[in-house]
Amino acid sequence: MDVGDTLKREVRALWADGTGLALGAVATTWGLLIGTRMILPVVLPSIQETFDLSLTVAGLLVTILWLGGAIGQLPGGMLADKYDERTLMATSAVVVGVALVAFVFAPSAVVLFGAAAVWGLAHSLYPIARITLLSNLYPDRLGSALGVTMATGDVGQTALPPLGAVLAGAIAWQAGLGFVIPLLVAFGVLILMFVPKTSSPDDDNGSGRSLEGVRAVVPALSTPSMGFITLILFLYIFIWQSFTAFYPTYLITVKGIQPAIASALFGLFFAVGVVVKPIAGGAYDRIGIRGSLVGVLAAPVGGFFLLPFVDELWALALITALVSTMLGSGAITQSYLAESFPEELRGTGLGVVRTVTATVGAGGPLVFGAIGDYGYFDEGYWALAAIMAVIVLLTLAMPTTSAARN
């Protein structure tokens, strides 16, 4: 099947019902939010120098950002069940912009870490509201809609880190992050303009924002398939956050790559995801979770294992591309989760799973930073390869009985 024809067909279908502007606003803002978060690893060496941070403490800074984004996902999901998703998404974009003002002008490490926590909490309002909105707009093409949205996120992650690196090198690391602040505010406004209102406080009995809403999703959470997907998500998040937090630093300090080239390789990691994610989402729609998830996670096992052995730029680019196929897993796992909960409790269910997995997985940068401080970066990547292999085996062993596709 021709990849170009597949992508064109999916884009036409997603635009067909007049929802294209809403999808564009949601996806572009997501690209800004997640792309901004990926500027942090690129400027992290400069932040280390400014505040005299070790690799371990720098990893803690990234962990706090991710932890804030994890803790807020449950209340964010509950709010998405009860209130208008577009308001939550717009609020997320604007408050992240405000937090970045405090981050780039932080006079001390304490303020820096506090701003990172607020940044993460504000970011956490967006992901689940985005999923529940798209599940309403595209009930028959959720995998494709999420794939396109996540691919747009990868456009942001591809373009913004290198741009941030250029500005950081030419001016200061603060400029490398600060340039996105007005963009976040502007796109927060565009969401209010183009995204339709899909829910209101009168649409349900309030279960989504109460503890009863959490208790109501327990039966779905207690199934064997949900146990497998939760463990898979935790391990994947641990790997992804560990890798993205320190890959530019690893390339610069261990491989001897120039910062600009390291940021370009980091951008390549996300650039491949622009193509992989829509294809992965479409594959989930057609063949289910097992085949599609194994298909995107097999190559990173080899990529992580081989990374310490290569030094040539072309080989590092090839390894980066191999590892980046794992980015397609988001469109698959999030679609599977969204289809595993009743519509009225979808946000709460997603919030419970994402909060639990992301909170535990947020420790990855701290652990990986400590490994780097002790001089075991290479061994750390071999450990990531082993964990990814475990994820592939867990996917193959998933029970076939579930409310979602298998």
UniProtKB/TrEMBL annotation:
Keywords: Cell membrane, Membrane, Transmembrane, Transmembrane helix. The keyword Signal does not apply. Pfam families: MFS_1 (PF07690). It is a multi-pass membrane protein. The keyword Methyltransferase does not apply. InterPro entries: MFS, MFS_dom, MFS_Efflux_Transporters, MFS_trans_sf. Residues 1-403 form the Major facilitator superfamily (MFS) profile domain. The chain crosses the membrane at residues 12-33, 53-72, 93-119, 171-195, 216-240, 260-280, 287-307, 313-337, 349-368, 380-398. One of its GO terms (molecular function) is transmembrane transporter activity. GO terms for cellular component: plasma membrane. It is found in: Cell membrane. It comes from the Archaea. PROSITE patterns: MFS. PANTHER family: CHLORAMPHENICOL EFFLUX PUMP RV0191, PURINE EFFLUX PUMP PBUE. This is MFS transporter. It comes from Natrarchaeobius chitinivorans.
